From TrEMBL:
Span of domain FAD-dependent oxidoreductase 2 FAD-binding: 28-425
Lineage: Bacteria, Bacillati, Bacillota, Clostridia, Lachnospirales
Record domain Fumarate reductase/succinate dehydrogenase flavoprotein-like C-terminal: where: 478-557
Protein name: L-aspartate oxidase
Signal peptide: none
Pfam families for this protein: FAD_binding_2, Succ_DH_flav_C
Entries under PANTHER family matching the protein: SUCCINATE DEHYDROGENASE 2 FLAVOPROTEIN SUBUNIT (PTHR11632), SUCCINATE DEHYDROGENASE [UBIQUINONE] FLAVOPROTEIN SUBUNIT, MITOCHONDRIAL (PTHR11632:SF51)
This protein's record includes keyword Transmembrane helix: no
Domain of life where this protein originates: Bacteria
Gene3D superfamilies linked: FAD/NAD(P)-binding domain (3.50.50.60), Fumarate reductase/succinate dehydrogenase flavoprotein-like, C-terminal domain (1.20.58.100), Succinate dehydrogenase/fumarate reductase flavoprotein, catalytic domain (3.90.700.10)
Keywords: Flavoprotein, Oxidoreductase
Keyword Oxidoreductase found: yes
Length: 573
């Protein structure tokens, strides 16, 4: 893959990067990000003896996907180590859902490390739903047995608990309002990063080790279940530094409430067979399913998992919703009309409870009512949303990437998940691999000390020019999100993917050729990150000529056994 934006050196009269005033900081471990994985990594690095700087775009607790209020609860997977075979079953379920795309070593580490994280989080004040003398668990997405624990309020309790721990450790410094724009390398080793603060001032952070924990890239899509700061920065930083990525075609997506508020439409709701109609009041699912199927059967298949998967017949729900909306038959607010008014207690009690409906529906209903939406008295609209990327920067068992000195954890990292991802596995992955990355980054930094020489290092000329482009960034971002929503989310085919990549190329040129301005334009940087992530996802999806899990190709609708292996992305491809 070639460079994503060939920005010419400007001949304008302006202050060059060498003339800039730049703050310089030194730390043992630099953590990039402010969500669950980043905070856990920072704690682990500090507890392993390192000085730590957290560089985050937003104040801690206000950024990242972990705390974003798009669900009534967070699912959190962990087997019971006291039940023979339970942890092994978790591992087997990860591998089965991954369909040959998950790293078996990382999957085993995740399953084995999950139980102790519950004890740890509880000791820090996180509450899990209880039932009798034990935990309440239910069988979540793609699982064979119940193991998903429930945390009310999504991931907010986890992040607040981690923040409390961080505040007790004076060796952890938080730099908020800082966007990391480039990783620094010397002799092939990652040795720090450049960032820009909220005033547009350049910062150089020299570090013995760097941990990427900046989340995914769902903002590349028009409809997504993540905050605005989740814009693919980590993928861009890793790719530009020469690190390897994997499984970027497996973009997890699913159905969510889109109006009057945004929230995940959890899989258990389908067990009650909500009524779906288009703007013309027509039931439409029948048009998109084989004659041998009934709509209730498709919904029953979807009650087993929230995300879209090409691996079973539940796929027809997302396909039908997307195609109806594309055809202009969405409701007043662009979505499909969903009627859940029949889902009262006397109805729900007769619906099978193999997916957690009886316990979770009152939680969801009350959560929505607290936000002003009474699902028992009013219709709502639903749509298809980007959720999380199952791939990312390749890591090994120590959380290390292919670039020495660079570690990764959380959604930005690839390997622990595959074509499909177990519901409740992302939250626990952040904790397990956040701890692993932090501990090992501290060990690395203990040997490879941060550089303290006075010789100035500056970011790449080309990237520095991107930061000074005066472009219609909002318009270009919207255009990119729109083409991705239509052709990179749910239903894919060669023509649509080529349209995505063509749009990416054109928007990249427009950004590169925009006039230069003196002030730093962080929205231009955000666009550049989204361009990078879109290209990585689009090219991987184009190369995988089959359908597998979250990746669905209309022109290659079945699994191809010859492609039973992960696909990698780096600058050599």
């Amino acid at each position: 893959m070639r460079s994503l934006a060939n920005v010419p050196r400007s001949s304008d009269n302006h202050i060059g990067r060498e003339e800039l005033k730049m703050d310089r900081l030194v730390t043992d471990v630099l953590v990039i990000g402010g969500g669950g994985a980043a905070l856990r990594a920072a704690l682990a690095a500090c507890d392993a003896g390192a000085d730590v700087i957290i560089a985050a775009k937003m104040p801690l607790g206000l950024g990242g996907a972990t705390t974003y209020p798009v669900a009534e609860m967070a699912g959190y997977n962990a087997g019971d180590p006291h039940v023979p075979g339970d942890v092994e079953c978790h591992y087997q379920d990860i591998m089965a859902a991954g369909q040959g795309m998950a790293d078996e070593k990382l999957a085993a580490i995740l399953a084995e490390g999950a139980p102790e994280t519950i004890d740890e989080l509880e000791s820090w004040g996180v509450e899990f739903d209880r039932e009798g003398d034990g935990y309440y668990t239910f069988k979540s997405c793609f699982a064979s047995i119940p193991r998903t624990h429930v945390i009310r309020g999504h991931g907010e309790p986890i992040v607040q608990a981690l923040i409390r721990q961080i505040r007790r450790r004076p060796d952890i410094q938080s730099l908020t309002g800082v966007t990391i724009i480039e990783l620094a390398k010397k002799n092939g080793i990652c040795c720090g990063a450049w960032g820009v603060d909220s005033r547009g001032k350049l910062i150089y952070i020299s570090a013995g080790a760097v941990i990427l924990a900046s989340g995914g890239a769902s903002q590349a899509f028009e409809k997504n279940l993540n905050p605005g700061d989740v814009s693919g920065d980590g993928y861009m930083l890793a790719y530009e530094s020469g690190a390897r990525l994997v499984n970027m075609e497996f973009m997890q997506s699913g159905i969510g409430f889109s109006h009057p508020l945004m929230n995940i439409f959890n899989g258990y709701i389908w067990a009650a067979h909500p009524l779906l109609t288009n703007s013309e009041g027509e039931s439409f699912l029948e048009k998109y399913i084989p004659d041998s199927m009934q709509p209730d059967y498709v919904m029953d298949e979807h009650r087993k998992h929230f995300p879209f998967s090409s691996s079973d017949d539940s796929k027809y729900l997302e396909i039908a919703i997307q195609k109806e909306i594309r055809a202009g038959r969405g409701g007043r607010h662009g979505g499909i009309i969903a009627d859940l008014r029949h889902m009262k207690d006397d109805y729900i009690c007769h619906v099978p409870d193999d997916c957690g409906l009886h316990h979770m529906w009152p939680v969801a209903r009350n959560h929505m009512k607290d936000k002003g939406v009474d699902l028992l008295t009013q219709k709502v609209e639903i749509n298809v949303f980007a959720h999380a990327i199952n791939g990312g920067v390749c890591i090994d068992a120590e959380g290390s990437t292919s670039l020495p000195g660079l570690y990764a954890a959380g959604e930005v990292a690839g390997g622990p998940h595959g074509a499909d991802r177990l519901g409740g596995n992302m939250m626990v992955t952040c904790q397990v691999f956040g701890k692993i990355a932090g501990t090992n980054a501290a060990k690395w930094a203990g040997i490879h000390r941060p550089q303290t020489e006075s010789t100035a290092m500056y970011p790449d000329d080309r990237l520095w020019e991107i930061l000074h482009r005066k472009a219609d960034t909002q318009g270009l971002i919207h255009e990119l999100q729109s083409v991705n929503q239509h052709h990179l989310l749910i239903s894919r085919n060669e023509a649509g993917l080529m349209q995505v990549l063509g749009t990416v190329e054109r928007i990249g040129r427009q950004l590169a050729e925009s006039p230069r301005q003196d002030a730093v334009n962080m929205e231009a940087f955000r666009l550049y990150c989204l361009i990078t992530a879109s290209r990585l996802m689009g090219e991987a999806a184009l190369r995988r000529q089959e359908s597998r899990g979250a990746h669905y190709r209309e022109d290659y609708p079945i699994v191809n056994p010859k492609l039973d292996r992960p696909m990698f992305s780096d600058q050599s491809i």
